């Protein structure tokens, strides 16, 4: 994977708004093929962290280093990573046009476009809905489309912010399958969730964020069996974390 934009190393990130520190001295890395679940109470800074890593907002201080030469910055960085939000964001076009548009943006040439779109639609279970306006799909179907679309161009990393929060168990499972499949094929995943079952099912690494800081990170098994911080212990017990 010589042309991957990973590993990503974020060092000493700080993000302030009007003098309030929302992300505080946070360092994290994302290596190729990893699957990291970001956990932490409401307001901890998880969404901000994802937005910082994806480049939607700029840190007040600290560095975000991608493994890409200066000549490939900009477009390559944007093409090789994708982000999925809690609520599906779709173009006012057909299901298929949404996938094709994303693939073009992700750099697919005319030769590979058809097959890649086909395969993404099949993986999302939406091949027979291809001509339907995307906005007529149910929310669960829309989110499946969004995830399949984000993965269509085989990005190096996909960030997801509570992508299954409002979905039924079957849709959750379909999206989890898409993520597992993509991860097995080499896409690194960084997923924010409050669904502990999902975190256990999917996460290889856990990053636990509390009050804008990364208070704990490491292998999922040891995190769940023996969390080191009071905050993580309380969070896992379902207690209010202050
Ligand atoms: N632009 C902003 N201006 C001021 N405060 C902000 C801004 N964006 C986020 N915050 C605050 O930063 C904190 C972290 O927000 P963030 O959305 O990252 O939390 P979160 O961990 O994703 O929480 P949740 O689990 O509820 O989604 C919150 O207290 C939020 O109110
Ligand atoms: Mg959030």
Would you give an account of this structure?
The chain has 242 residues and is α/β, with parallel strands linked by helices. The chain has 2 domains: 1-80 and 156-242, 3-Layer(aba) Sandwich (Rossmann fold), CATH 3.40.50.300; 91-154, no CATH class. The protein contains 9 helices and 9 strands. The protein has helices at 46-54, 75-79, 95-105, 110-123, 139-152, 169-184, 196-202, 220-225, 230-236; strands at residues 8-17, 20-30, 35-39, 61-65, 81-84, 157-161, 188-192, 205-210, 213-219. The strands form 2 sheets. It has a 6-stranded mixed beta sheet, with helices on both faces. The chain has a 3-stranded antiparallel beta sheet with strand order 2-1-4, with helices on one face. The longest helix has 16 residues, at 169-184. The protein is globular. Bound molecules: adenosine-5'-triphosphate (ATP) and magnesium ion (MG). Magnesium ion is lined by residues 46-47, 161. The site of magnesium ion has 3 residues, from helix 1.
What keyword list fits this structure?
single chain; 242 residues; alpha/beta; Rossmann fold; 3-stranded antiparallel β-sheet; binds adenosine-5'-triphosphate; binds magnesium ion
Short recap of the structure:
The protein contains nine helices and nine strands.
């Amino acid at each position: 994977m010589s042309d991957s934009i990973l590993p990503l190393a974020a060092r000493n990130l700080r993000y302030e708004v009007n003098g309030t520190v929302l992300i505080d001295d946070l360092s994290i890395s994302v290596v190729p093929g990893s699957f990291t679940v970001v956990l932490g109470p409401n307001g901890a800074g998880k969404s901000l962290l994802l937005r910082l890593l994806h480049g939607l907002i700029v840190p007040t201080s600290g560095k975000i280093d991608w493994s890409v030469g200066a000549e490939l910055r900009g477009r390559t960085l944007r093409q090789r990573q994708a982000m999925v939000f809690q609520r599906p964001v779709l173009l006012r076009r057909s299901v298929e046009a949404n996938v094709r548009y994303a693939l073009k943006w992700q750099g697919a040439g005319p030769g590979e476009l058809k097959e890649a779109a086909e395969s993404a639609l099949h993986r999302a279970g939406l091949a027979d809905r291809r001509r339907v306006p995307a906005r007529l799909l149910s929310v669960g179907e829309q989110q499946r489309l969004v995830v399949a679309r984000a993965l269509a161009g085989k990005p190096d990393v996909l960030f997801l912010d509570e992508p299954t929060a409002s979905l039924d168990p079957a849709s959750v499972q379909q999206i989890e399958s898409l993520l597992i499949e993509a991860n097995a094929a080499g896409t690194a995943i960084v997923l924010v969730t409050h669904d502990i079952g999902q975190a256990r099912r999917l996460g290889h690494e856990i990053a636990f964020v509390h009050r804008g800081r990364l208070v704990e990170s490491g292998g999922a098994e040891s995190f769940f069996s023996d969390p080191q911080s009071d905050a993580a212990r309380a969070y896992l017990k379902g207690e209010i974390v202050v």
